[in-house]
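Subgroup meeting minutes
Present: P.N., E.W., G.H.
Scribe: E.W.

1. P.N. recapped why we're keeping a running log of single-chain structure predictions: easier to compare across weeks, and new members can see raw inputs and outputs side by side.
2. G.H. added today's entry (189 aa).
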Amino acid sequence: MILPVIAYGDPVLRKTGDKINADYPGLEQLIEDMFETMYSSHGIGLAAPQIGRAIRLFIVDSSQIDAEENNTIGIKQVFINAEILERYGPKEEVEEGCLSIPFVRENVLRPSKVHIRYYDRHFVEHEEVFDEMNARVIQHEYDHTEGIMFTDLVKPLRKRLIKKKLIQISKGAVNPSYKMKYPLASKVR
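Output recorded in log:
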């Protein structure tokens, strides 16, 4: 089922997600719904807070990105109760966007590698290092489970310049091609 994406301004996007266990109610269906929602919204990652659940769950499918252009092999993975152990490598400034903040794209400086421990959808524990675009997408989605938005990481001047756009998004004054729930407009469209 395609779920509405929660728009910027909703308090759930600022909460630190709770850890879950293997018997979390409806977990497998939730994961399937998240993938369906992400694909229908043309995203490459989606975190549970973005669909209104303040839990430590996010999904990534960077295999949709042109591998030749980004010099990396994409991944399709579920991350549950993820913990970033280390962020390292050269910092790179790359333009990011977010399904919860449609029509806003800004440059964000992030380390090029991430060492992360997480559980997959079958609750098998993994500890891996990801780099390049995979590391960027993982860090972006992980930040959602920490209550951090990519706009928090942009330079102060750029933050001031996009403030009005963010307010318009929270009021529902944007119309992306996917279903959204707007906190200040009390509507889904």
